């Protein structure tokens, strides 16, 4: 493009059309402003946007609101980031209704307390702290580490995907062996520890920006810096009697509405095969249907998402079968690139060249093809 139109486009700001005034807190954010001083006394500092005396920093400035960190509202108002005053660690505060989710804190405490808390097969997000909200008997604050969506950034190699499969299968197996059903282990509730791959972290409300709000965050691949994956959100989870019969529960609809048992939402069903379906369908939709390179997972995933829950493998069987699959994968296969089916020819060429360079560096530095973190 040339001429006046090109010059105008180059000088104009991004075509951002806010639906609200960024200088005014949204209704869901008011709670955090009103409890900022109390949270500070508890040891947690909220960002300036939620201080009672906050005034938008771009007011009166010769600049646009999107250039300022405090213009960013909470993406999900019941969930807020904060800084632990004693350590400087960024954490996540989650406000829950005790009447709606009465066992969430209890189950998180169960997996956080020793000896389970440090168990290498435990991938349940730890509960760092929890406390009731003063004057609001029904509400409670849960404090957890800052985590990032499990597939952001994208997986670069088959070996990285294989390690993800291993960890998430073990995570659910561990819960099931302790007779706890997650009941909502969908893609939204599977996260990764960002600290190895993002050593300088990123803005907790906008993962595309760094903490200083002046550019994109720097990160390493999972092969260079192996990471750990976590299950979160135990609001629908249930702990059952280890000695009891297989449980039958009326379905509580989670994030994946395709579960065959849930098509009749009034018939009790065993929640453990539902979990198997959830994880299997997540891998089916996020990998098998969108990528090339992990076709070896098709037989196992097809069994996990069968309509008949009695024909699905247990998580013990899933882990055992996956271990057999993983042992048979060649070094070359594990090092190969995970190709997204949406890639165009030019994009595929560029990514392939970059992958070849990265892989050469990984091999020279003796980095394993399956990047397993030190638990």
Q: What is the number of E strands? A: 12
The number of helical elements comes to: 10
- Average pLDDT confidence is 92
Radius of gyration of CA atoms, rounded to a whole number: 23 Å
Major sheet details: 5 strands, antiparallel
| Low-pLDDT regions | 1-13
Please state roughly what percent of the residues sit in beta strands, choosing from under 5%, 5-15%, 15-25%, 25-35%, 35-45% or over 45%: 5-15%
| CATH homologous superfamily grouping of the domain at 148-364 | Transferase(Phosphotransferase) domain 1
Strand order of the largest sheet: 1-2-3-5-4
The H/E string reads HHHEEEHEEEHEEEEHEHHHEH
CATH topology of the domain at 148-364: Transferase(Phosphotransferase), domain 1
Helix residue percentage: 25-40%
Q: What is the CATH class name of the domain at 148-364?
A: Mainly Alpha
Assign the structural class, choosing from mainly alpha, mainly beta, alpha/beta, alpha+beta, or little secondary structure. Answer: alpha+beta
Distance between the termini: 53 Å
Could you please describe the fold and organization of this structure?
The longest helix has 20 residues, at 158-177. The protein has a five-stranded antiparallel β-sheet. Strands 6-8-9 form a three-stranded antiparallel β-sheet, with helices on one face. Helix 5 (158-177) runs antiparallel to helix 6, helix 5 (158-177) packs antiparallel against helix 8 (315-327) and helix 6 packs antiparallel against helix 7. By secondary structure, it is an alpha+beta fold. The chain has a domain at 148-364: Transferase(Phosphotransferase) domain 1 (Transferase(Phosphotransferase), domain 1). Mean pLDDT is 92; it is low at 1-13. The protein has ten helices and twelve strands. One of its GO terms (cellular component) is nucleus.
